[in-house]
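Reagents: none. Just compute today. Replication factor A C-terminal domain-containing protein.
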Amino acid sequence: MLVECLRNWLPKFGVPVYFKNALLTTIIILGISLVARGSANIVLNPSYPESQSLRNWRSKNHAYLTKIVEEKKYLQHSTRHSMAPQEKISSVANVLTNETETKFRVKVTSKISDPQQKFWYMACDNCYKSTAAQYLWNITCNVCHAETVAKLRTKFAMTLSDGTTELEAILFGGLAEKYLSLPANDLMEKDEQNEKVDCAAINTQLYGKEFNADIRKKKVQTRYGPENQYTVFGLEEIQ
Ligand SMILES: [Zn+2]
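Predicted 3D structure written out:
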Protein backbone atom coordinates (compact mmCIF):
# COMPACT_ATOMS: atom_id res chain seq x y z
CA MET A 1 0.00 0.00 0.00
CA LEU A 2 1.31 3.43 -0.89
CA VAL A 3 0.84 4.72 2.59
CA GLU A 4 3.21 2.01 3.85
CA CYS A 5 5.84 3.16 1.34
CA LEU A 6 5.37 6.73 2.52
CA ARG A 7 5.63 5.62 6.13
CA ASN A 8 8.98 3.92 5.36
CA TRP A 9 10.38 6.30 2.79
CA LEU A 10 9.53 9.80 3.88
CA PRO A 11 11.07 9.55 7.37
CA LYS A 12 14.42 8.81 5.70
CA PHE A 13 14.34 12.40 4.58
CA GLY A 14 13.00 13.62 7.87
CA VAL A 15 9.59 14.46 6.43
CA PRO A 16 7.09 14.21 9.24
CA VAL A 17 4.14 11.99 8.40
CA TYR A 18 1.72 11.21 11.20
CA PHE A 19 -0.65 8.27 11.28
CA LYS A 20 -3.26 7.65 13.94
CA ASN A 21 -5.84 4.93 14.26
CA ALA A 22 -9.01 5.49 12.30
CA LEU A 23 -10.83 4.32 9.21
CA LEU A 24 -9.04 4.46 5.86
CA THR A 25 -9.55 7.48 3.67
CA THR A 26 -8.22 8.69 0.33
CA ILE A 27 -6.27 11.90 0.03
CA ILE A 28 -5.66 13.34 -3.42
CA ILE A 29 -2.54 15.47 -3.78
CA LEU A 30 -1.45 16.82 -7.17
CA GLY A 31 -3.69 14.28 -8.89
CA ILE A 32 -2.16 11.33 -7.01
CA SER A 33 -4.35 9.56 -4.50
CA LEU A 34 -2.89 8.39 -1.21
CA VAL A 35 -4.71 5.93 0.98
CA ALA A 36 -4.32 6.81 4.62
CA ARG A 37 -6.18 6.57 7.88
CA GLY A 38 -8.98 9.08 8.33
CA SER A 39 -7.17 11.01 11.00
CA ALA A 40 -3.76 11.02 9.28
CA ASN A 41 -2.05 14.38 9.04
CA ILE A 42 0.27 14.66 6.07
CA VAL A 43 2.28 17.86 6.34
CA LEU A 44 3.33 19.27 2.99
CA ASN A 45 6.26 21.67 2.70
CA PRO A 46 6.81 21.88 6.44
CA SER A 47 9.39 24.43 7.59
CA TYR A 48 11.75 22.00 9.35
CA PRO A 49 15.50 21.67 8.67
CA GLU A 50 14.85 18.08 7.57
CA SER A 51 12.47 19.22 4.86
CA GLN A 52 15.13 21.65 3.61
CA SER A 53 17.48 18.68 3.17
CA LEU A 54 14.75 16.97 1.16
CA ARG A 55 14.49 20.07 -1.04
CA ASN A 56 18.27 20.05 -1.48
CA TRP A 57 18.13 16.38 -2.42
CA ARG A 58 15.42 17.20 -4.95
CA SER A 59 17.57 19.98 -6.45
CA LYS A 60 20.58 17.65 -6.76
CA ASN A 61 18.48 14.96 -8.43
CA HIS A 62 16.50 17.36 -10.57
CA ALA A 63 17.40 15.73 -13.91
CA TYR A 64 16.44 12.25 -12.77
CA LEU A 65 13.20 13.41 -11.13
CA THR A 66 12.26 15.39 -14.23
CA LYS A 67 12.74 12.21 -16.28
CA ILE A 68 10.46 10.26 -13.95
CA VAL A 69 7.79 12.97 -14.16
CA GLU A 70 8.08 13.22 -17.96
CA GLU A 71 7.81 9.45 -18.35
CA LYS A 72 4.94 9.48 -15.84
CA LYS A 73 6.26 6.33 -14.17
CA TYR A 74 4.05 7.10 -11.20
CA LEU A 75 1.01 6.45 -13.39
CA GLN A 76 2.06 2.92 -14.34
CA HIS A 77 0.11 1.36 -11.48
CA SER A 78 -2.82 3.73 -11.71
CA THR A 79 -5.55 3.69 -14.29
CA ARG A 80 -7.70 6.34 -12.63
CA HIS A 81 -5.36 9.20 -13.48
CA SER A 82 -4.01 7.98 -16.79
CA MET A 83 -4.11 10.22 -19.82
CA ALA A 84 -6.86 9.97 -22.37
CA PRO A 85 -6.61 6.64 -24.20
CA GLN A 86 -4.43 7.05 -27.27
CA GLU A 87 -7.15 5.93 -29.65
CA LYS A 88 -9.71 8.40 -28.30
CA ILE A 89 -9.52 11.48 -30.46
CA SER A 90 -11.65 14.45 -29.42
CA SER A 91 -12.81 17.20 -31.72
CA VAL A 92 -11.53 20.70 -30.98
CA ALA A 93 -15.18 21.74 -30.55
CA ASN A 94 -15.50 19.13 -27.79
CA VAL A 95 -12.34 20.40 -26.06
CA LEU A 96 -13.83 23.89 -25.99
CA THR A 97 -17.22 22.87 -24.62
CA ASN A 98 -16.44 19.83 -22.45
CA GLU A 99 -16.48 20.99 -18.81
CA THR A 100 -15.95 17.60 -17.17
CA GLU A 101 -12.67 16.37 -18.65
CA THR A 102 -9.31 18.11 -18.47
CA LYS A 103 -7.11 16.12 -20.87
CA PHE A 104 -7.80 15.53 -24.53
CA ARG A 105 -6.09 14.22 -27.62
CA VAL A 106 -6.92 16.00 -30.86
CA LYS A 107 -5.82 15.43 -34.46
CA VAL A 108 -5.03 18.87 -35.81
CA THR A 109 -3.14 21.13 -38.15
CA SER A 110 -1.28 24.00 -36.55
CA LYS A 111 0.08 27.47 -37.15
CA ILE A 112 1.58 30.38 -35.26
CA SER A 113 -1.00 33.15 -35.59
CA ASP A 114 0.84 35.89 -33.69
CA PRO A 115 4.41 36.46 -34.95
CA GLN A 116 4.77 39.46 -32.59
CA GLN A 117 4.47 37.43 -29.40
CA LYS A 118 7.46 36.74 -27.17
CA PHE A 119 8.77 33.20 -27.65
CA TRP A 120 10.67 32.68 -24.41
CA TYR A 121 10.77 33.63 -20.75
CA MET A 122 13.21 33.36 -17.87
CA ALA A 123 12.22 30.44 -15.64
CA CYS A 124 13.17 28.74 -12.39
CA ASP A 125 15.04 25.63 -13.53
CA ASN A 126 13.15 23.55 -10.98
CA CYS A 127 9.46 24.46 -11.30
CA TYR A 128 9.53 26.53 -14.55
CA LYS A 129 7.66 29.45 -12.99
CA SER A 130 8.84 32.77 -14.35
CA THR A 131 11.50 34.74 -12.52
CA ALA A 132 12.77 38.31 -12.81
CA ALA A 133 16.40 37.10 -12.52
CA GLN A 134 18.89 37.27 -15.37
CA TYR A 135 20.10 34.26 -17.35
CA LEU A 136 22.05 31.76 -15.21
CA TRP A 137 21.77 33.83 -12.03
CA ASN A 138 21.64 31.74 -8.89
CA ILE A 139 18.19 32.09 -7.39
CA THR A 140 16.08 30.89 -4.51
CA CYS A 141 12.76 30.45 -6.25
CA ASN A 142 9.87 32.40 -4.74
CA VAL A 143 7.45 29.67 -5.79
CA CYS A 144 9.14 26.30 -5.15
CA HIS A 145 11.90 27.65 -2.84
CA ALA A 146 14.57 25.58 -4.61
CA GLU A 147 18.08 26.96 -4.77
CA THR A 148 18.65 26.78 -8.48
CA VAL A 149 19.43 28.92 -11.52
CA ALA A 150 17.41 31.05 -13.93
CA LYS A 151 17.18 29.38 -17.34
CA LEU A 152 15.58 30.32 -20.62
CA ARG A 153 12.41 28.47 -21.48
CA THR A 154 10.57 28.55 -24.77
CA LYS A 155 6.88 29.36 -24.67
CA PHE A 156 4.48 30.51 -27.33
CA ALA A 157 0.85 30.38 -28.39
CA MET A 158 -0.20 28.36 -31.42
CA THR A 159 -3.50 27.84 -33.18
CA LEU A 160 -4.78 24.29 -33.54
CA SER A 161 -7.53 23.43 -35.98
CA ASP A 162 -9.34 20.23 -36.93
CA GLY A 163 -12.06 21.43 -39.27
CA THR A 164 -14.70 21.72 -36.52
CA THR A 165 -13.18 24.88 -35.08
CA GLU A 166 -9.86 26.14 -33.73
CA LEU A 167 -8.35 26.95 -30.37
CA GLU A 168 -5.29 28.74 -29.10
CA ALA A 169 -2.97 26.66 -26.94
CA ILE A 170 0.42 27.23 -25.31
CA LEU A 171 3.45 25.11 -26.11
CA PHE A 172 6.39 25.01 -23.68
CA GLY A 173 9.97 23.81 -23.31
CA GLY A 174 11.43 21.06 -25.47
CA LEU A 175 8.22 20.59 -27.48
CA ALA A 176 8.22 24.29 -28.34
CA GLU A 177 11.92 24.27 -29.31
CA LYS A 178 11.35 21.23 -31.53
CA TYR A 179 8.38 22.91 -33.22
CA LEU A 180 10.39 26.06 -33.97
CA SER A 181 13.62 24.11 -34.67
CA LEU A 182 15.28 26.78 -32.50
CA PRO A 183 16.79 26.48 -29.02
CA ALA A 184 15.69 29.05 -26.43
CA ASN A 185 19.15 30.70 -26.41
CA ASP A 186 18.80 31.51 -30.11
CA LEU A 187 15.39 33.05 -29.42
CA MET A 188 16.86 35.36 -26.78
CA GLU A 189 19.72 36.30 -29.11
CA LYS A 190 17.23 37.10 -31.86
CA ASP A 191 15.40 39.44 -29.49
CA GLU A 192 18.64 41.12 -28.49
CA GLN A 193 19.42 41.73 -32.16
CA ASN A 194 15.86 42.84 -32.85
CA GLU A 195 15.25 39.91 -35.17
CA LYS A 196 11.92 38.16 -35.45
CA VAL A 197 11.13 34.47 -35.51
CA ASP A 198 10.27 33.64 -39.12
CA CYS A 199 6.76 32.40 -38.39
CA ALA A 200 5.68 32.60 -42.03
CA ALA A 201 8.43 30.13 -42.99
CA ILE A 202 7.53 27.78 -40.14
CA ASN A 203 3.82 27.96 -41.01
CA THR A 204 4.60 27.27 -44.68
CA GLN A 205 6.83 24.32 -43.82
CA LEU A 206 4.18 22.75 -41.58
CA TYR A 207 1.19 23.72 -43.71
CA GLY A 208 -1.27 20.82 -44.03
CA LYS A 209 0.77 18.54 -41.74
CA GLU A 210 -1.29 16.79 -39.10
CA PHE A 211 -0.34 16.31 -35.48
CA ASN A 212 -1.67 14.31 -32.56
CA ALA A 213 -1.76 16.95 -29.84
CA ASP A 214 -2.39 16.21 -26.16
CA ILE A 215 -4.08 19.17 -24.54
CA ARG A 216 -4.61 20.04 -20.90
CA LYS A 217 -7.54 22.35 -20.13
CA LYS A 218 -7.38 24.49 -17.00
CA LYS A 219 -9.58 27.26 -15.64
CA VAL A 220 -7.49 30.33 -14.75
CA GLN A 221 -8.43 33.70 -13.25
CA THR A 222 -7.76 36.66 -15.50
CA ARG A 223 -8.68 40.32 -15.12
CA TYR A 224 -11.63 39.57 -17.39
CA GLY A 225 -12.82 36.76 -15.10
CA PRO A 226 -12.29 32.99 -15.26
CA GLU A 227 -11.05 31.73 -18.62
CA ASN A 228 -10.00 28.36 -19.95
CA GLN A 229 -6.31 27.96 -20.70
CA TYR A 230 -5.09 25.22 -23.00
CA THR A 231 -1.58 23.75 -22.79
CA VAL A 232 -0.10 21.31 -25.29
CA PHE A 233 1.81 18.65 -23.34
CA GLY A 234 2.32 16.20 -26.19
CA LEU A 235 2.76 16.87 -29.90
CA GLU A 236 3.61 14.28 -32.50
CA GLU A 237 3.51 14.68 -36.23
CA ILE A 238 1.40 12.04 -37.98
CA GLN A 239 3.61 10.55 -40.68
ZN1 LIG B 1 10.74 27.29 -8.76
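The longest strand covers residues 147-161.
Action item: order primers for follow-up constructs.
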